[in-house]
Amino acid sequence: MSTIPFEKEYDYLFKILIIGDSGVGKTAVLQRFANDYYSTDYVATIGVDFQIRTIDIDSKDVKLQVWDTAGQDRFKCVVSSFYRGAHGVIVCFDITDLESFRNVEEWISEIQRYCSTNPPIYLVGTKSDLQTKRTISYQQATQYAQSKGIQYIETSSKTNDNIQETFFRFSRTLIEHSDKVLTTGNPNGTLKPLGGLQATRRVQPSGTSCFNGNSCSLV
């Protein structure tokens, strides 16, 4: 009796958080990546929002759950619960806003405080199309990232510069980190689901809003 071969939905599943000060362009980055959409009329994220997209990395299907988090202090208690289970974190700052760059240190401390698995971090400078208004040089940001042992890239959601590259490069980093964790046998590390779920239709980019951290918890 012949059997029907199992068709996996994805090779890797990663939960990625995007954090940073309010107004640095986190939502614009996510919308450009997930839906190839850009607007000048974004409103501040309330709580958290997420988008799902599956990409191809070296012939592997990588499913990304990307969470856009509010940057305001009053939402910190909501956002903190979404650090749990994150496989990677993107920290954003606005290259034209010195204060947002200074606060990167605090955001990295948040990751260390709430993420027990020590996930990879990617530092992203936003609004690279505003070169004449920049207050943080590329060299400054690069040196800071090197001091923290993390990657750095500059993006523009308006011109779509380096948006796709950011997520594709970071996904490769997460794959490498995931494989390393599995090799070392760390049970608390990043998971790499391979054929562990019943195959369903490919999830297309979609989103929802989460309030009070109740109904939107995905891992």
From TrEMBL:
The entry's keywords: GTP-binding, Membrane, Nucleotide-binding, Protein transport, Transport
Matches recorded under SMART domains: RAB, RAN, RAS, RHO
Cellular compartments annotated: Endomembrane system
Protein name: Uncharacterized protein
SUPFAM superfamilies: P-loop containing nucleoside triphosphate hydrolases
Organism name: Didymodactylos carnosus
GO molecular function, one term: GTPase activity
Entries under Pfam families matching the protein: Ras
One annotated Gene Ontology cellular component of this protein: endomembrane system
Protease recorded as keyword: no
CDD domains reported for this sequence: Rab
Database matches in InterPro entries: P-loop_NTPase (IPR027417), Rab (IPR050227), Sigma_54_int_dom_ATP-bd_1 (IPR025662), Small_GTP-bd (IPR005225), Small_GTPase (IPR001806)
PANTHER family: RAS-RELATED PROTEIN RAB
Major place of residence: membrane
UniProt GO BP: protein transport
